[in-house]
Amino acid sequence: MSKTTYCNKCKKELLSIEHAIECQFCIERLIDENEENSDEENCKIIPPMLYCYCCYITCYACSTNGCPNCIESVCSDCSERMCPNCAFDGKPNCGCYGKCTSCYTTVDRGANGWPCNDCRQWLCNYCHYHSKIICDTCGCYNKSDEESSKESDEELFNCNECKKEFNKKDATKCKFCIKKYISDIKKNCKLNNVKYEPINPDDFDLILYCSNCSDSCYDCKISGCSNCIECVCCDCCVRMCPNCEGNGDENCGCYGTCSRCEKDIDRCENGWPCDTCKQWYCSRCIKINNFCNACKPDSDSE
Questions:
Q1: Confidence of residue 249 (pLDDT cuts 50, 70, 90)
Q2: pTM of the complete model
């Protein structure tokens, strides 16, 4: 007669070993404890860590089965549970992140909301308004025949970064990418002893970017791709082109001029511009005829 086996959590009798799930993480933990206790007296016999179908949990990321103590909830927003291996691997792999159902680009709950409970689609912002699905719950937009025919007459392009299709009139050229592309062509022509035919950067339209994948320089206002217009300061988070980033001037968002006397100021001595009145005053002008309740000094401090 076979030995009776019980679930390690609810203590109910298991009909057979085939009806049980073994938690490998519990076994690994007990093995590690035995290795730490090198004395034979302190070593424990590792029991079978078995659980019934009602008590085991599956990891959201790798689909490994385990007990509820090992497969823990890792996110208070999506409430998904993960094993120790997936929970601490540093990747955004909980239920708040995923792939667009239509174009398979990365989506997340912060920028794209949750998947629809009715149509079960999780679409990026672009596909949400261009999908062929009609859903009253999530408001997926289906283009009419008139709009579709009008769009077909417009010249379209594929963004060089996200690869999505957009209207060409909304395209952004990156002069820095074009300059690098032309430089590579010149090098290849020189290596292969081929005559280089000059390219006009203004007429070059092979490298185009959409509004989501482009940005403008904080200092000189030149537009370019988000890879060339980089964030240059972790405090003010402004983005600059390569020309302005390396010129050594104090020109990021931490520096500016007083809104009244135009004196040079910076965030260390004068704080940030006021979010309410949008003014940035020096330490002297902020006390003079300042009617903003948010940034004017307290009477006690004066």
A1: low
A2: 0.43
Report the C-alpha gap between 113 and 96 in whole angstroms.
9
196 phi, psi to nearest 5 deg: -85, 130
Q: 3-state secondary structure string, 134-198?
A: CECCCCECCCCHHHHHHHHHCCEEECCCCCCEEEHHHCEECHHHHHHHHHHHHHHHHHCCCCCCC
More confident residue, 150 or 58: 58
Residue that wins the pLDDT comparison between 291 and 130: 291
Which tokens belong to 78?
């999506």
Q: pLDDT digit string (tens) for 11-66? A: 777 766 666 777 888 888 877 777 766 555 555 555 667 877 777 788 888 888 88
Paired sense of beta strands 239-240 and 156-158, if any? unpaired
Q: Alpha-carbon distance 288 to 133, whole Å? A: 59
Place of tokens 């993960």: 82
**Which residues does 224 contact at the CB level (< 8 Å), separation at least 6?**
172, 174, 175, 176, 177, 209, 214, 215, 216, 217, 241
- CA distances for 268 relative to 215, 236, 248, 273, angstroms: 27, 12, 19, 12
Other C-beta atoms closer than 10 Å to the C-beta of 134 total 10
Instruction: Show contacts of 246-250: CB within 8 Å, 24+ apart.
Output: none
User: What is the token pair recorded at 237?
Assistant: 């988070």
pLDDT over threshold 60, residue 184: yes
